[in-house]
Task: inverse folding
């Protein structure tokens, strides 16, 4: 063989070997990448989890709304409407529900002893305000204040709604409809909601801050008893921004449908709510009609003296983002006891003898519902309040609820839920019992409930010991600790001092500056970190200093971190907080606030424009994990302020977004958030008397000093030290998938009421935010 050809052959063989080896490596790398990708795409085992993106702006959750969540946690979405204020995903993966009640404590106590409540603030990401306590807090959150189904339901006989003509002994004068409207027939104008009633029941009204972008119908004609009625009903879906319109039906007086439109929401749809709306993805896909098209069409259709009729019409108008001054709401027209409301389905059957919203249909028929509300209004006007009162609707509704609950016990395959069903009754339907642990001295309606296992203890320590043993044995537990509250005077003093502390922490001193410094430029500089409440020139020193009080704590902290020790107008300035007995531990407090589980994924930004939200959404691919954009507004003008908060799913996503937004393209100033969202409303309302000149000493009243010296176990501060950790250890002993709520119900005194605080989470929902507990 030719030597040259032989050498060439050897080179070719070596080349083929190298290529095969390279291909093998590439193939292995690709296989590994594919395996990693596959592993990344593998769905994690489903876990129950919570989301609070539906929170109201002030983050207040009513006792009824708490009850909604607890009932949903027991029965699930197939039987109970979803909570209106939060989302509980994969409810069927919940294993237990445990509610800890810290009786005698409030939101004020939590933030007064914030550092002492270390475990609670780090472990529970979801925090919310509670209204001041009612006379029976536990009965409210369990739903016992509503009428209960009593007796042995399994022995209820078959039956249906009793005849309206059946002889029932009733006192018409006590009927709420007679009390409101009298016994004689009334005209249309008497049935209209007054402006005050519309305000009470949260109808959109002109000039209200939350309605600034709402469109008025321009119906401002003179209303008479002959004005035309239009039945209105809307269907909604759940989007990333809350509930949005998907269908509108408008029916004229003769029963003719004059408008029936499907509507494509502006934001991403999270849940079509098909069981209520009947709307599916397939139905909405080809739709191009938008909300603004519907608003324009509706304005053109309605005459100047049009009266809109609907059932819970405030929700429909808010979905439409429209304001209409003349409304009849059939859920309020047919008045019920204790402010409750009859369902439209019930009124249709009891008054008109017709069946609507049948279970064999997919969702509600909006046109049918709109037509039904119109017929109910016409019936009321034709026959008058006395005729309605004689029907004894309350008895009919109670009878129907008894039959429904009795049927459930006979047929466990189908759970029948009624809106006024209590948590106890929900557990009863599931064949389960509630555990209630409390101190001997405490009384509650729970103690006498049929399917409640009550254990009374002599002390909080005994309650804790019993809880460790008993909680694993019950699917639903309420554990109540009772603490001795401060006296009214001490509570009021503590409230003032707490507010002063937040004000002082939001204040900075900066200087020294030259005597001919440019004050306008300095104000612009300090304002770039956030909204300024006041800025004062201090001339007591050799060289001028500035005292700047910010509206938000984040702005003050950002000013300190950005300007302390740098050259400003040729002088090296120091930026610091005032040093008083209330701010001595502020550095520790700021660090702990930043580590608060609620703040971990939230960032604060200053310098945002009115179009910031639009720009943010246009480049949403840069901000993965964004859950909510919180844009505070001026309470007087309703205008958007020049700062905001962005809430992300994880701390890492928040940090990446912060780096981008502080970069050259966005040019914003920002840092991680310090103020939990539910505190914003409280801090915005600081009264003038809560602010004092920095440096003035506040001496704790002798009675508090004596209480601290006595080290009473149930004193609120000592309770925070000891019981926060004890409850933490008990929480760690709970099984995975346990929905846990910590409720500080709030307090009442002669000086006023103090709001409560709620914390909630699901065990093992987010292991990364649960701190290690030391012994």
Result:
């Amino acid at each position: 063989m030719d030597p040259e050809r032989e050498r060439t052959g050897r080179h070719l063989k070596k080349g083929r070997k190298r290529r095969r080896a390279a291909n093998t490596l590439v193939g292995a790398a690709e296989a590994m990448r594919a395996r990693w990708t596959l592993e990344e795409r593998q769905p994690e085992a489903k876990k129950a989890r919570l989301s609070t993106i539906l929170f109201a702006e002030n983050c207040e959750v009513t006792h009824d709304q708490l009850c909604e969540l607890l009932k949903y946690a027991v029965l699930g979405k197939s039987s109970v409407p979803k909570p209106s204020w939060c989302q509980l995903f994969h409810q069927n993966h919940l294993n237990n529900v445990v509610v800890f009640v810290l009786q005698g404590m409030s939101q004020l106590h939590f933030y007064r002893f914030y550092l002492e409540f270390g475990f609670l603030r780090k472990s529970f990401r979801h925090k919310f305000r509670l209204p001041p306590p009612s006379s029976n807090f536990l009965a409210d959150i369990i739903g016992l204040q509503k009428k209960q189904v009593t007796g042995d339901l399994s022995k209820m006989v078959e039956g249906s709604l009793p005849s309206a003509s059946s002889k029932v002994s009733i006192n018409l004068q006590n009927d709420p409809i007679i009390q409101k409207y009298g016994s004689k027939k009334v005209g249309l104008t008497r049935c209209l909601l007054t402006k005050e009633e519309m305000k009470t029941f949260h109808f959109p009204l002109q000039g209200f801050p939350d309605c600034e972008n709402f469109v008025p119908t321009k119906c401002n004609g003179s209303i008479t008893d002959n004005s035309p009625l239009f039945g209105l009903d809307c269907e909604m879906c759940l989007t990333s921004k809350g509930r949005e319109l998907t269908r509108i039906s408008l029916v004229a007086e003769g029963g003719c449908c004059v408008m029936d439109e499907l509507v494509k929401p502006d934001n991403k749809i999270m849940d079509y709510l098909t069981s209520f709306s009947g709307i599916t993805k397939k139905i909405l896909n080809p739709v191009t009609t938008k909300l603004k098209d519907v608003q324009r069409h509706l304005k053109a259709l309605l005459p100047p003296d049009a009266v809109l009729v609907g059932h819970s019409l405030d929700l429909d108008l808010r979905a439409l983002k429209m304001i209409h001054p003349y409304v009849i709401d059939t859920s309020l027209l047919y008045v019920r006891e204790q402010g409750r409301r009859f369902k439209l389905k019930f009124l249709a059957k009891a008054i008109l003898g017709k069946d609507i919203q049948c279970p064999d249909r997919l969702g509600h028929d909006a046109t049918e519902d709109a037509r039904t509300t119109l017929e109910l209004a016409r019936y009321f006007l034709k026959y008058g309040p006395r005729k309605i009162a004689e029907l004894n609707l309350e008895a009919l509704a109670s009878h129907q609820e008894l039959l429904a609950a009795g049927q459930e016990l006979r047929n466990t395959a189908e759970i029948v839920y009624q809106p006024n069903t209590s948590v106890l009754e929900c557990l009863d339907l599931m064949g389960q019992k509630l555990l209630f642990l409390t101190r001997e001295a405490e009384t509650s309606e729970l103690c006498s409930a049929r399917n409640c296992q009550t254990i009374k203890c002599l002390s909080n320590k005994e309650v804790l010991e019993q809880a460790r043993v008993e909680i694993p044995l019950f699917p639903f537990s309420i554990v109540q600790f009772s603490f001795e509250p401060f006296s009214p005077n001490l509570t009021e003093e503590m409230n003032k001092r707490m507010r002063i502390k937040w004000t002082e922490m939001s204040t900075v001193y900066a200087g020294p500056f030259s005597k001919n410094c440019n004050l306008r430029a300095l104000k612009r500089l300090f304002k770039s970190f956030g909204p300024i409440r006041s800025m004062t020139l201090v001339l007591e020193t050799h060289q001028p200093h500035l005292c700047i009080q910010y509206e938000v704590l984040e702005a003050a902290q950002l000013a300190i971190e950005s300007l302390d020790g740098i050259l400003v107008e040729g002088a090296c300035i120091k930026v610091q907080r005032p040093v008083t007995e209330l701010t001595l531990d502020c550095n520790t407090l700021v660090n702990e606030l930043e580590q608060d589980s609620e703040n971990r994924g939230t960032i604060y930004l200053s310098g945002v424009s009115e179009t910031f939200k639009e720009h943010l959404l246009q480049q949403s691919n840069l901000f993965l994990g964004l859950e909510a954009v919180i844009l505070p507004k001026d309470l007087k003008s309703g205008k958007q302020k020049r700062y905001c908060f962005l809430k992300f799913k994880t701390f890492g996503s928040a940090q990446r977004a912060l780096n981008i937004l502080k970069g050259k393209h966005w040019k914003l100033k920002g840092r991680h958030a310090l103020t939990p969202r539910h505190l914003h409303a409280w801090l915005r309302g600081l009264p003038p008397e809560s602010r004092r000149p920095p440096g003035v000493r506040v001496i704790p009243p002798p009675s508090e000093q004596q209480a601290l010296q006595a080290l009473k176990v149930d004193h609120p501060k000592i309770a925070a030290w000891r019981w926060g950790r004890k409850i933490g250890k008990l929480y760690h002993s709970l099984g995975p998938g346990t929905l846990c709520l910590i409720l500080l119900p709030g307090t009442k005194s002669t000086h006023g009421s103090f709001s409560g605080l709620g914390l909630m989470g699901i065990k093992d929902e987010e292991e990364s935010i649960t701190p290690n507990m030391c012994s």
